[in-house]
Structure formats: C-alpha cells, structure tokens
Design a protein that fits this description.
979 residues; alpha+beta; five-stranded antiparallel sheet; 29 helices; 38 strands; 38% helix
Length: 979
C-alpha cells in the first residue's frame, strides 16, 4: 500500500463512526485506534479474546453468536452479534485480516446497531398487529406489487380461495384463479389502478370460491406506493355482500308484488331526482293530476302544473334538498277531483340517490314517508395500516391492561363523535354510562386473564350521547411486546342497519302474506301458460278448492265457455305497461259459475299476478239498482206529492212533474226561485223557521200544515216533510216532500162542524130526555106506593128497570161524547178520594152491601193525569164488578191494588163474579157488545173505559175464567213525565 493509500485510509479510519481497533497480529498490541474506540483500549497492549470478553461483559467469549454468513467470507476471520441483557444494546463485531505497510494486522470493527434493532422490533410488532387485525376482519384483504403479484393476504382471502398463504404470496390472479372470465376482470381493474394511480370502487362483482359457491363482493382497490418503486401496487378490500344481494333480490321481488298494492292506496306518492324530475308516481297521482305516466316521468312540476303552483312546489323541494330536512305541507288545496275540492297534507323528505351524492325528493300524502338510509364513505389514509383499518366500517380498537385506548380506527372514533387522537389514552368510562362501562371492563379483564377470545353475537351499545347501536363484537387478548403484558384487541361490527333491514324485510314479508291472506279479493300468481304457482286463501275459497288442489290447476281451463270469447284470458305481455282489466265467468269445483273482475299484470320475472274480485253480487245489485232507479223515476214522475230539492238558501233546484200538475207552474217559472215565494204571508215566519231548523238537523222534520198558492193564486194545504241532504255529494240539497191534504183539510173542517153539531145534539137530547125520565121514575115510585095489586107491583118493577136502563144509556152516551171531545187536563190524582166517591155512588146498587171491598194504594211521588177520565175508568170497573157478582157465593169480594211511580201507575181490579167466557174476551171492548145474556147494560161501558184509557196514554189487559171471576190490569202514563 503506497503512502497516498495509507493517508486516505488514515483519514477514513480516523473519522468513521464505528469503534475500530487495529492490532498487531503477533503481539496483540494496539497499532491504531480511532476516536470511537479510544475509551475501550486506551491505546494499550491487549489480548484480543480477553478484551472482547470485557467489552461484551461476559465471562466466556463463546457466548458471542457468530454469523455464519461472515465465516464464509475469505477476508473475514469472524463476525458476531451481541445483545446486552442489561443495557438493551445490540452490537455487531467483525474481525478481519489485512496487510498494511507489509504488516499482517487484525482489524476489529464494532458497530452499534441498537437503534436498528429497536426499529426492527417495532416493525415486527407492527407487522404482528397488522396481521392480527386483518386476519380478524371477515373482509378479504390483499396487497399486490406493480406486477400484480400478491405480497400480503389475510385469513379471509385464504379461506375464499381455499389456499394457504404460501401458495398465494408471489403469485398473480392467473395463477390461483382457474375461471378466466372472473380473473380477467380482476386483472383489468388492477391494471387500471396501477396505470392511473386512482382508486377504483367496484359496487358488485361475482366470484366463485373453491367450493363452487357463488359469492358477491363489493371491492375497493386503491394505489399503494412502495418506497423503492415509483409505480404503485394495489391495496384491496373485498366485502362479502352475498347476503345483502339476496336481501336486495327479496326486496325487489317484494316491491314488484307490492307495486299493485301501492297503486291501490288512496294517497299520492311521488319521487323526484335532484333536478326535480319525476322518477316515480303511483296510479293515484296520475288519476288526481289527470296525467299519463308518460306525461309525468322525466318531467318537472313546471311541465305539469301552473307556474305559480310549480314554483311553490319547487321552493319546498329546494328547502328539503339543501337543508336535508323533512318538510310537512298542511292543508294545501289541489285541483278538483271527481267534482270535489281536494286538500292535501304532503310530507317531503330528501332522497339520496344510491350512486351519487345528489339529493332528490320523496313525497307522500297523509302517510308516513319511507326512511332513507344514509351511506357513509370511508376516507383514505396515508400509510398501509391506517389505510386498512380506517377503510373498514367496523370499529377496531386496541387497549392496554388498564383499558386505555392505544389504537382506534376512524369508525370507532366516528361512533363516539370524537377524533382518533382525542380517544387515545381514554377508557370506556369516558364514552359510556357507568353500568355499560362496568360490564365491558369486567368482560375484558376476564379475556386478558384467561387469554381466550370471546365472540358476542349481539351487544347493545349506548354511549353518553344516547346513540344506541347493535353490534357483533369480537374481543381477543393481544400481547403488547413493549410492555411484556397482554392487552385487548377488539372488533365491533355494527349490525344495526342489517338487523333493521332484516326486520324490515321480515316485516314486509309478513305484511305481504297478511295482505294476501286477509285480502277480500282473490290473488294468484301463474306462469305464462296459466299454471297456478301461488294463491291466497280467498282465491281458493272462490273456486271451492283446497290450496293443494288449486295449485295443480290451470287458470285458463277454469274459464266458463261463453259465446264470442275466443281467448278466455289474455295474458299481458311486455307491451302492456299497466294491468289488464277483464271481466270473465269462472267455473267452481261444484260446477257453478261466478263472475269476476280480473286485473292481470306481467311482473318483471315473467310471472303473472292477478287480482280476482267476485262481482256476481255486484252485477245483481247493479241490475237491482238500475231497476230501482227506473222504478224511482217512474214513482217521481207519477207521484201525486210535490217533490222539491232546495239549495242551502231555499232556492228550488229540482221539481217533480207533479208540481206542474198540482200547482200549475212550469219548471222554467219555478226552478231558481225561492220556495218561500209560494207561501201564504201569514205562514211566512213559521215556514222560514221550519226550513231553518232543517238546516241544523240531521234527521227529517215534518210540518202538519203548509199553505202554497197555485198558479191561480189559490191556496192549497200540504203536509210537509223535509230532510237535510246537503252533505250528500249526489244530492247536495234539502229534499222536501209535500202531500196535498186540501181535501182532507176541507173534510176535517166539515167533520169538526158536524161533531160540534152532534155534541150539541147529544147534550141537548140527554138534557131534554133526563127531565121526563126523572118524572117517570118519580111517578113509578108513587104508583108503587099507592098500588095494592101484586100484579101491578111486578109491572111497576119492570118499568123501573127499563127507565133506569135508559137513564144509564143516556149517561154512557154523555160520557162517550165528553171523552171524545174533551182535551186532557193533567192534575194531581188522589186515588183514595176517587175510589171513595165511586163507592159512595154505588152503595145503593142492589146487593152492593154484600161485596167485601179491599183497597191498597202505593203511589211514590206525584201522579198526574185527567181526573174525569180516571173517575170514569174506576166507576165502570166497580160498577161491572157489583152488577155481575155471584151473590149466592158466601164470600163475594172486590180487590183493588194501585201501584205508581214517576213513570206510570198500575190499577189491578179483581173480583170473584160470574166471569167471562174465553170466546168473548176479544170483543168485550167493542161498542154495544154484550158478553152475557144476563147483561142488561147498554154495551158502551167497556168501550168508553178503553177509549178513556187510550186518551190518557194507557193500556188495559183482562183475564177471566167463566164462573170464577175476572181481573182487569190497567197501566196509565204519568203526565209528570213529559216524554
């Protein structure tokens, strides 16, 4: 080595950072040492072995582990590494031979790799955490270099491929995926990410695993840059959405089947995109706007409604979309529908379109709008570990043995509404109520202590912000290398939405099945040939088959043969945008036929859904209604009563033909004028009040007499009935029916006059007859006193009976006349006084003293009635009991019991007289009827009794046994009660 080389060597050697010692290979004296080694040798002569042992703080140099790779180097005598157990030093020593200035020397180079060792351990620990985390999650995670070779995969990825990690690392998709159509798509996506450096999101892709199962994934592929290469690799996460796709298909099928139901609801339902264009409307919307689906879908409110209304709708939509709020518009007037004013209460909500961040509007009238799920996107992170765990929607966290957070991902921080940095060092007691935190802490301490993983299928989590979620939790012990203790690694999978979705799907299926089974119409599904696939119970009942029998039938073959019907049921095809509405006759199992209204629709899966409505009875009813309408029209046209329909202001809107016939007015003269113009001036106020009362009453009102003037200005009398039908949309008026009672009114006037003359005659005749009768009766008594002839005595007795009978008849006739014409005069009735007065009047009746009379009166409160008629009733009952007694009986009696209260009074009169034969009981109250040959009365007594009872709102019952006695029961109304 020349001097220049030696100088260069000395400069490099002197300033190198490693501790370097050069020794004489013979004397082991220090020939040269650099600055880093000065403190080790102090420039003295050393023994190489002893010196190395003292430096490494060991007694035996053999404890130094030699690196075999260095032993193979020709110029390298030996190399070793040493880890100090006390000072945590990591040293590497190399011993080389060299020739310098013609001397053979030993060169000892000691390199302090402690920092490198620590970094290596940290990297190893990170790799352990990384692999533990990614192996816990159920999603497939992989990392490829820019040649698409796998350099990292997790356990889920291995399971899907059925291969161990060693069979995947270093390979490409072509090497491990045998289906070209699938791996070619993977290759294309990877190449696009590598070439553009832009992340790619695959919403749904198909994959067949090693067991042949068809799996759907939602995959995220992002560029991952390696420090040694400018071209990125690919970091990917594939989430298994097979179950979600299955749910989606079920939802789609349910929506297809439920679309018919949605179209039947009486509410308007619509959906708009972010530009205000209609994406969907139901049939009710189309009916009420008078538009077709083609005129609405893809159009805005400005294309459908007047500008002012469309502007108002648009402003509401903008507010909903910009503020992301639900808006309720109450009492909003709409267009006339079927002749009626419409008022809507509309609920509008923001609609978040599935594949964009733009917001549309969902609207529904008087109904609860569907909830729209918000989709959250995960943010990309800079390094691989944070990229992976922050990309996952699951909560991932790492805790120490005290429960303090060492690591949390974004999902976990988002749930607690905190930043990731602020959560580090905190415990569950900072996030949850104490009772929840106690439960979590107890379980986690058990896991750390036992060293066993726990899986909690469903755990309710409620934080201090009252956020409640359902989670599937996995917690496992995790060794913290830097602390030489176990911590806890947790994975929380939020299954709230999936549970809700599952419940909604289950509830939707239950609602659909319930609707199917409880529907009043028959519903069935069939294929294109008409073979029945499914049907509800109502459809089976309609045809008279059991479900098993009905499923084996073809619906086309059940159509009844009818003339001019070539195709019994035409199945809808793709050109039919709406349901086909048909009317057909079907044959039941028992051979009978029935008529149905059939609504058939083609579903997207090629099935035909039909709704059967049995209209057999409706057809009969329609025929009956048509017949009734014809009969009603004939009745109206041929009625002798006046029939009018009035408006709320009593203006005549309709008149029957009888109005022209009876009053002489034409329709042109009368319709449009007020009915009050036909009235007599004297009755104007009363009639106005009558029609005003009709306006506020829901039932019909009547007026006994109403005078209308005809076209000749003559007044006719009408009995009038009016009913308020203003709320009836078909009538919308007051119906007035007037029955002509003019002739009856004239007859009544004449009858009143005749009755007055008859009453006058009866009164005068009875008055004029009573005086001669009294004289004759007096003369008979004188003659009986002066006569001594026994035969004359018999004749005088017969004459006396005849005159007495005539006097009683005149008295009965007077009572009858008085009862007919006298008004009722309710007064307080004292039955004891009336009975005593009656008994006093009858005490001179022959054998009256032989009858034992028993009286019992129990009246609670006051009893009001007509005293004269009450006296007439009691007098007739007592008189008959005395007259028709069996005096040969040793114990003739008359028992009277009277009970009364605020409602009524009951009079029971019982005797043990001669009785009445059963064949006569139905006729004893007829005028001039005599029930016995021994009867010597006028035959008016019981007739007058019943008439008097009827006048004062009472009733009479009689029971009798011939030869044993008679019982009369009379029930009288208490006029204290105004009803």
């Amino acid at each position: 080595m020349n001097k220049i080389d030696a100088t260069i060597f000395e400069v490099i050697f002197a300033h190198t950072a490693d501790a370097t010692v050069v020794c004489d290979c013979h004397t082991l004296a220090v020939v040269y040492e650099n600055i880093a080694a000065t403190n080790l040798t102090n420039g003295t002569e050393i023994n190489l072995i002893q010196w190395a042992a003292s430096v490494f703080e060991v007694n035996d140099i053999s404890q130094i582990q030699y690196l075999p790779s260095f032993k193979e180097t020709k110029k390298l005598v030996a190399a070793a590494e040493y880890i100090s157990p006390n000072s945590l030093l990591y040293l590497q020593i190399e011993v080389r031979q060299m020739v310098w200035q013609e001397q053979h020397l030993w060169v000892l180079r000691i390199v302090d790799n402690t920092i490198l060792y620590q970094e290596k351990n940290r990297l190893k620990e990170s790799e352990i955490i990384l692999h533990s985390v990614i192996n816990l999650v159920p999603e497939a995670i992989f990392l490829k270099d820019n040649q698409r070779r796998f350099i990292l995969v997790n356990k889920a990825f291995e399971d899907y491929h059925g291969l161990p990690k060693t069979a995947i690392i270093g390979k490409t998709d072509e090497d491990i995926k045998p289906i070209p159509s699938q791996y070619s798509k993977f290759v294309k996506d990877d190449q696009e990410v590598i070439a553009t450096g832009v992340a790619k999101y695959i919403e749904q892709e198909n994959y067949t695993d090693h067991n042949g199962n068809n799996i759907f994934f939602k995959t995220t592929k992002i560029p991952f840059y390696f420090s040694h290469n400018t071209n990125p690799g690919v970091l990917g996460v594939a989430i298994n959405i097979t179950e979600r796709v299955g749910f989606k298909k079920k939802v789609i099928n349910n929506r297809k089947m439920q679309r018919q139901i949605v179209d039947l609801v009486p509410h308007m339902i619509f959906l708009k995109d972010y530009e205000g264009k209609y994406l969907f409307v139901n049939n009710q919307f189309l009916k009420r706007t008078g538009k077709s689906e083609k005129e609405v879908i893809g159009k805005t409110d400005f294309d459908i409604f007047p500008f002012e209304k469309a502007q108002r709708y648009n402003n509401d939509d903008i507010e909903v979309k910009e503020k992301h709020i639900e808006k309720v518009i109450e009492k909003e007037f709409g267009p006339l529908y079927e002749g009626k004013i419409t008022v809507y209460t509309t609920i509008k909500k923001p609609y978040y379109q599935y594949d964009t961040d733009k917001v549309g509007v969902l609207g529904i009238s008087t109904d609860v709008a569907e909830k729209i799920r918000n989709k959250e996107l995960l943010d990309e992170q800079k390094n691989m570990l944070n990229e992976i765990i922050n990309l996952l929607p699951q909560e991932i966290y790492l805790k120490d043995e005290e429960g303090k957070m060492l690591l949390v991902n974004k999902a976990c921080a988002d749930f607690h509404m905190m930043s990731q940095e602020n959560m580090i060092g905190k415990t569950d007691y900072d996030f949850f109520e104490k009772k929840y935190a106690d439960e979590f802490s107890k379980l986690e301490q058990e896991i750390i202590k036992e060293g066993k993983t726990r899986y909690i299928k469903e755990e309710i989590s409620v934080d201090k912000h009252n956020v409640r979620r359902i989670k599937s939790v996995m917690k496992m012990p995790f060794y913290l290398n830097d602390r030489r203790k176990n911590g806890l690694l947790g994975l929380n999978i939020d299954i709230t939405e999936s549970k809700n979705a599952e419940q909604k799907i289950i509830a939707s299926e239950i609602r659909y099945k319930t609707l199917m089974e409880q529907a009043s119409d028959g519903i069935y599904l069939s294929d294109d040939d008409g073979n029945v696939i499914e049907a509800n119970q109502k459809a089976c009942e309609m045809f008279g088959y059991s479900p098993q029998e009905f499923y084996a039938l073809n619906i086309k073959k059940l159509v009844a043969a009818e003339p001019n019907t070539h195709h019994p049921i035409r199945m809808p095809n793709a050109k039919d945008k709406q349901s086909l509405i048909l009317e057909r006759k079907f044959v039941k199992k028992d051979g009978s036929t029935f008529t149905v209204e059939l609504s058939v629709k083609l579903l997207e899966d090629g099935m035909h859904q039909a709704i059967l409505r049995d209209v057999t009875e409706r057809k009969k009813i329609e025929k009956i209604l048509a017949d009734n309408e014809r009969k009603f029209r004939l009745l109206i046209e041929n009625s002798t009563d006046l029939i009018l329909i009035l408006s709320q202001n009593f203006i005549i809107k309709f008149m029957s033909p009888s109005v022209s016939r009876i009053l002489g007015y034409t329709e042109a003269n009368l319709v449009g004028t007020s009915i009050l113009g036909l009235l007599d001036d004297e009755e104007f106020e009363a009639a106005s009040q009558f029609f005003s009362n009709v306006l506020v009453k829901s039932n019909s009102l009547s007026l006994d007499e109403l005078k209308f003037k005809n076209n000749n200005q003559e007044f006719l009398f009408f009995e009038t009935v009016a009913v308020n039908m203003l709320d009836d949309e078909n009538i919308n008026g007051i119906i007035v029916n007037c029955h002509d009672v003019t002739k009856r009114k004239v007859t009544e006037t004449e009858l009143i006059h005749t009755n007055f003359e008859l009453d006058s005659f009866v009164y005068k005749a009875s008055h004029d007859l009573k005086a001669p009768l009294r004289s004759v009766m007096g003369l008979i008594k004188l003659a009986k006193l002066e006569s001594i002839d026994p035969n004359l005595e018999i004749y005088f007795e017969m004459m006396s009976k005849s005159v007495t009978s005539l006097d009683a008849f005149i008295k009965d006739l007077t009572q009858f006349s008085r009862n007919s014409r006298m008004e009722i005069e309710p007064v307080a009735i004292h039955f004891d006084e009336i009975i005593q007065e009656t008994l006093d009047n009858l005490k001179f009746v022959e054998n009256a003293e032989k009858v034992a009379v028993s009286i019992e009166i129990n009246i609670i409160g006051e009893f009001l009635s007509d005293k004269t008629r009450i006296a007439t009733i009691i007098n007739n009952l007592f008189s008959n009991a005395f007259k028709y007694h069996r005096f040969e009986n040793n114990n003739p009696y008359l028992n009277v019991v009277i009970n009364g209260d605020a409602e009524k009074a009951e009079i029971v009169v019982e005797d043990n007289g001669i009785g009445i034969d059963q064949s006569h009981l139905n006729y004893i109250f007829d005028m001039f009827y005599r029930a016995s040959e021994t009867s010597y009365g006028s035959g008016l007594g019981l007739y007058i009794l019943k008439s008097a009872i009827h006048k004062i709102k009472g009733k009479v019952e009689v029971q009798s046994v011939l030869g044993q006695g008679t019982t009369f029961k009379i029930t009288l109304h208490n006029f204290l009660n105004k009803k």
